[in-house]
Amino acid sequence: MSSYLSTCARAGARLLGAGALATTLLAAGPMTQADAATDAATGAASTTASLKTASLKTAVKTAAKRKTKAQRAAERRRAHRKRVARKIGYAVKVARQQKGDPYRYGAAGPNAFDCSGLMQYAFSKAGLRLPRTSDAQAGAVRKISRKAMRPGDLVFFHRGGDVYHVGVFTKRRHGATWIIHAPYGSKPVQGAKVWTDSWFPGTLRAR
User: Fold this and answer.
1) What is the 3-state secondary structure of 18-44?
2) Would 14 be classed as within a structural domain?
3) Distance in angstroms (rounded) separating the CA atoms of residues 194 and 181
4) Half-sphere exposure of 201 (CA within 13 A, CB side)
5) pLDDT by position in tens, the chain (length 207)
6) Closest CA to 85 of 143, 152, 167
7) CA separation for the pair 90, 151 (Å, rounded)
8) Which residues have CB under 8 Å from 89's CB, separation 6+?
9) N or C: which end of the chain has fewer CB within 10 A?
10) How many Cα atoms are found within 13 Å in the side-chain-facing hemisphere of 168?
11) In the chain, count of helices (H) and strands (E)?
12) Residue 42, domain member (yes or no)
């Protein structure tokens, strides 16, 4: 009898559990097409938003890399300009040190110079290359305006379109342009005021 009652109790408990589950399922109700569409739209919107966020992050990173690359390139250009400027300054110093050395046609130092030989000697000592003749040197430099001149730029003298003389610019004083050059004849390397208006400047400075 006791065994029978125990069996009946277990069966009743199972029936109660099944009934509770059925009640829960009935209360929840079946998912309608509208519900399914809403869930799908929500998922799609979430995915789209995630893709947009990822794309924006990628664009920001790419722009940052490009900016950094441009900054590095600008820094390299500034450093190069400074190096060249220091070399040009040293070339002027070398030219000054040759004051008093005699002029000799075709000479390029170390104890005698013609005009283009002095320029080639001074700039080569500074690590900058120039051709041998004044005409070739005029073709090797970057042309600039007179207002843009700085110490160390070259001054080319011309006659009828032909360059015949060159010196290195050192200063302006009382409106006059001064150079160091190796003049013709018996005069030694010296500083001098530009004596004609038939001249143009050129530079080895980096842009």
Assistant:
1) HHHHHHHHHHHCCCCHHHHHHHHHHHH
2) no
3) 10
4) 20
5) 445 435 444 544 453 444 444 444 344 455 556 555 555 556 666 677 777 777 778 877 777 777 788 898 999 999 999 999 999 999 999 999 999 999 999 999 999 999 999 999 999 999 999 999 999 999 999 999 999 999 999 999 999 889 999 999 999 999 999 999 999 888 999 999 999 999 999 999 988
6) 152
7) 11
8) 151, 152
9) N
10) 28
11) 4, 6
12) no
Residue 26 lies in a domain: no
Radius of gyration in angstroms for the set of CA atoms belonging to the chain, rounded to a whole number: 44
Question: Hey, what are 102's tokens?
Answer: 């005699």
163 CB neighbour count, 10 Å cutoff: 20
Q: Are 188 and 180 in contact (CB under 8 A)?
A: no
CB 158 within 8 A of CB 149: no
Nearest to 156 by CA among 175, 179, 174, 173: 179
Tell me, yes or no, whether 30 lies in a domain.
Answer: no
Give me the number of domains the chain comprises.
Answer: 1
- Cα separation values, 41 from 30, 46, 104, Å: 19, 8, 92
**CATH at residue 139:** 3.90.1720.10
The residue with tokens 């000479």 is: 107
Specify whether the CB–CB gap between 84 and 206 falls below 8 A: yes
At 74, list the tokens.
């600008």
